Amino acid sequence: MPNTTLENSPNAVLNKSVAERYMHLPCPENKVKATYIWIDGTGENVRAKTRTVDFVPKKPEELPVWNYDGSSTYQAEGTNSDTYLCPVAIYNDPFNGGNHKLVMCDTYKYNKKPTETNHRHTCLQAMEAAKDTKPWFGIEQEYTLLDMDMRPLGWPKNGFPGPQGPYYCGVGANKVYARDIVESHYSACLYAGINIAGTNAEVMPAQWEYQVGPCEGISIGDELWVSRYILHRVAEDFGVIVTFDPKPIEGDWNGAGAHTNFSTKAMREDGGIIEIEKAIDKLSRNHLRHIQAYDPKGGKDNERRLTGRHETSSIHDFSAGVANRGASIRIPRGCAEDKKGYLEDRRPSSNCDPYAVCEALVRTCILDE
Ligand code: ADP
Ligand code: MN
Ligand code: MN
Ligand code: MN
Fold first, then answer.
1. Residue in 96, 44, 9, 2 with CA at minimum distance from that of residue 355
2. How far is the CA of 269 from the centre of ligand 1 (A)?
């Protein structure tokens, strides 16, 4: 039987050993490729472009403010299109190596106001106000790999794989697809300097997860967005597509989330379970606000995923419980036993903006807004 997987993927069929010849050319000293990364007008896709700088940047403030054509990213009118890119965080570039850098940016309109999808701006204000409580976040990023025909990678072209069961944390060629991409991404994130905490195969075949964190404050958003850029870029090298859609396949297949684990200093100290319970009480009274912040379409994407089935809670109800994977909020068993630790908010969608999610958690649980 012919193997049809990836036959239409131009990036997969290019000969990578030819590219190696050029990637290993020596680079002049003090010439650095800086790849500026930003969130486009969809609020869920990343864009990037590269420029040369003639010094090795150590802090984002040292890098020039740049601009781009916002009319080509759903962020501006063609007649007034210049949109500003402001560097906010720097990472080592795992694709170019050497002194080359990845530069996370936030975006501003011609009038210096944040663009509609720049949720970092207000998130940073909330994080500054809550700084003394030392908020930590750890996000479990789930995603699905697709072939060029937009079907999950490795799935039969004219049918479906066997039912869910053997795939979660699976091992073996008939259980998991494209571990090469997963491991390459993991190594690339470590090289970049991202606090990647782990990875595992998910319940639906071709679905995977990695975790970023714990990170304190705004850095969770910066690191998660750059980890997503790295994932798209690694998969591009293999000719495979990454989707963060929260329900890529309808029917009896798990969706994808971005469980957000959250704690303050007080929650992490002895007896902190009291603080965790206080936070859950506040969350119970702000369910709608959180659902609106937890996907890029104000709750519409999560409507497809938060059905009350497939290890989710219903989008319409708030619930919390120890070790309960069918609740909005789960207290991990270990934290209940230790009477301290963190809570897990299971509602954020896989394509959420972590700046919006973490801002909502801080404003509800810490700032009492
Ligand atoms: P699950 O059991 O839900 O699959 P994971 O092991 O995938 O959990 O992810 C747990 C996440 O919680 C990790 O990203 C980890 O860094 C993060 N985490 C651990 N401790 C804390 C804490 N005190 N505050 C916030 N996040 C934490
Ligand atoms: Mn997990
Ligand atoms: Mn998971
Ligand atoms: Mn989880």
1. 44
2. 16
CB under 5 Å of ion ligand 2: residues: 140
Q: Which two tokens stand for residue 301?
A: 């994407």
Is the beta carbon of 210 within 6 A of some atom in ligand 1?
A: no
The pLDDT tens digits of the residues spanning 157-199 come to 889 999 999 999 999 999 999 999 999 999 999 999 999 999 9
Cα of 51 vs its chain's centroid, Å:
25
Ligand 1 pocket test: pick from 261, 263, 276 the residue with the most ligand atoms within 8 Å of its Cβ: 261
Closest CA relative to residue 341, chosen from 254, 285, 264: 264
Q: Is 141 in the pocket of ligand 1 (CB under 6 A)?
A: no
Would you say the CB of residue 346 lies under 6 angstroms from ligand 1?
no
Q: Whose CA is nearest to atom 7 of ligand 1?
A: 140
Which atom of ligand 1 is the closest one to the Cα of 211?
Answer: 14
DSSP-assigned states of every residue in 13-59: HS-HHHHHHHHTSPPPTT-EEEEEEEE-TTSS-EEEEEEEESS--SS
Amino acid residing at 313: S
Strand order in the sheet with 101-108: 46-53, 32-39, 101-108, 82-92, 66-69
What's this model's pTM, rounded to 2 decimal places? 0.97
205-229 burial, b at 16+ Cβ within 10 Å, e below that, comes to bbbbbbbbbbbebbbbbbbbbbbbb
pLDDT digits (tens, 9 = 90+) for 309-352: 988 999 999 999 999 989 999 999 999 999 999 999 999 999 99
Domains of the chain in sequence order: 31-117 (3.10.20.70), 127-365 (3.30.590.10)
| Structure-token pair, residue 85 | 């890119």
Ligand with minimal distance to 259 CA: 4
What number of other Cβ atoms are within 10 A of residue 184's Cβ?
18
